[in-house]
UniProtKB/TrEMBL annotation:
Regulation: Allosterically activated by ADP and other diphosphonucleosides, and allosterically inhibited by phosphoenolpyruvate.
UniProt KW keywords: Allosteric enzyme, ATP-binding, Cytoplasm, Glycolysis, Kinase, Magnesium, Metal-binding, Nucleotide-binding, Transferase
Subunit record text: Homotetramer.
Compartments reported by the entry: Cytoplasm
One annotated Gene Ontology cellular component of this protein: 6-phosphofructokinase complex
Organism: Lunatimonas lonarensis
UniProt protein name: ATP-dependent 6-phosphofructokinase
UniProt pathway annotation: Carbohydrate degradation; glycolysis; D-glyceraldehyde 3-phosphate and glycerone phosphate from D-glucose: step 3/4
Family: Belongs to the phosphofructokinase type A (PFKA) family. ATP-dependent PFK group I subfamily. Prokaryotic clade 'B1' sub-subfamily.
UniProt: substrate binding residues: T126, I127, D128, R163, M170, G171, R172, E223, K247, H253, L254, Q255, R256
PANTHER family in alphabetical order: ATP-DEPENDENT 6-PHOSPHOFRUCTOKINASE (PTHR13697:SF4), PHOSPHOFRUCTOKINASE (PTHR13697)
Cofactors (names): Mg(2+)
Length: 323
């Protein structure tokens, strides 16, 4: 391997820049040429590929977003799109890839490896933390901190007005952000797609908190739940508890922005270097992650297919703390 390409794909996550920087710097350390592929797989298809030098990665570690930009490429899902992408890689002589992104992005890398044999190592870059094969994904810690900071602010106004807030957090189909942000913000309840909480139980919880004279109630709702988002659930609760003053806030994309936390900078840096070393050691079609503080390589297929379970212990703790 002499030339590697690096790209970010799917939803951006804080720490992606730190990961790109680590890949580029590690590449230089091992005497490789490194190419930045812009807008994920779109850039591979449209030949938006530029050689990186040390200036390309100056002052990016501390910035949110991804300077390589990102996209969710529909064309790469087609065999024709992947053929164009392959031809462009050949043109530049790129013989291996580091793909930073979530499950969709890693699925692309896996398919590409199967079809064209382009060695790829994936880095888990998503705020959702929904990838098997790593305890934490790049961006999750920052997103949880951002969510908690926002919820703290909502708590001030909720307490001032004795209000019940339903706050929706991101996570696609997974409740990891909701659990973490819920525990960290003393939520009255945390609703996640992985565990259904009937409205009746939520009502019971709210009534017992009323008896305990709680001044404000924050319910964290993970997007992607089968019972609907924060607005739908709030509506159901309002019908049963008409005297409650209920408001809804959807935190949305602010959870994806901002400077990466210290944790995400370190995680991204560690994984970026390990990805390059993995490629040089012949570890292909794998995702590099951290489990129990150790760097581990997991076949991409497992990372995207195997279910990452929510931590039952965290759920138990959250339940104790909210009653
Ligand atoms: O995967 C990251 C994520 O932010 C999810 O939490 C969310 O469901 C999705 O991306 C939103 O995607 P988009 O920015 O394309 O609307």
């Amino acid at each position: 391997i002499k030339k590697i390409g690096v790209l970010t794909s799917g939803g951006d996550a804080p720490g992606m820049n730190a990961a790109i920087r680590a890949v580029v710097r590690a590449g230089f350390y091992y005497n490789l040429e490194v190419y930045g592929i812009y807008r994920g797989y779109e850039g591979m298809i449209n030949d938006d590929i530029r050689k990186m030098d040390s200036r390309s990665i100056a002052h990016v570690l501390e910035r949110g977003g991804t300077f390589l930009k990102s996209a969710r490429s529909q064309e790469f899902r087609t065999p024709e799109g992947r053929k164009k992408a392959y031809d462009n890689l050949r043109k530049h002589g790129i013989d291996a890839l580091v793909v930073i992104g979530g499950d969709g992005s890693l699925t692309g890398a896996h398919l590409f490896y199967k079809e064209y044999g382009i060695p790829a190592v994936g880095l888990p870059g998503t705020i959702d933390n929904d990838l098997f094969g790593t305890d934490l994904t790049i961006g999750f810690d920052t997103a949880c901190n951002t969510a908690i900071e926002a919820i703290d602010k909502i708590r001030d106004t909720a307490t001032s007005h004795d209000r019940l807030f339903f706050i929706e957090v991101m996570g696609r189909d997974a409740g990891f952000i909701a659990i973490n942000a819920g525990i960290g913000s003393a939520a009255a309840a945390i609703l996640i797609p992985e565990k259904k909480m009937p409205v009746e139980s939520l009502i019971e919880r709210l009534k017992s908190r009323e008896k305990a004279k709680k001044e404000s109630n924050i319910v964290i709702v993970a997007e992607g739940g089968k019972s609907g988002g924060a607005a739908e659930i709030a509506e159901k609760v309002q019908k049963i508890l008409p005297t409650y003053d209920i408001k809804v806030t959807i935190l949305g994309h602010l959870q994806r922005g901002g400077a990466p936390s210290a944790f995400d900078r370190t995680l991204a840096s560690k994984l970026g270097v390990s990805a390059v070393e993995g490629l040089l050691q012949g570890k292909y079609d794998v995702m590099v992650g951290v489990i129990n503080n150790k760097v581990v390589f997991t076949p991409i297929k497992r990372a995207i297919v195997d279910d990452k379970k929510v931590d039952e212990e965290e759920l138990r703790i959250a339940a104790i703390l909210s009653t």
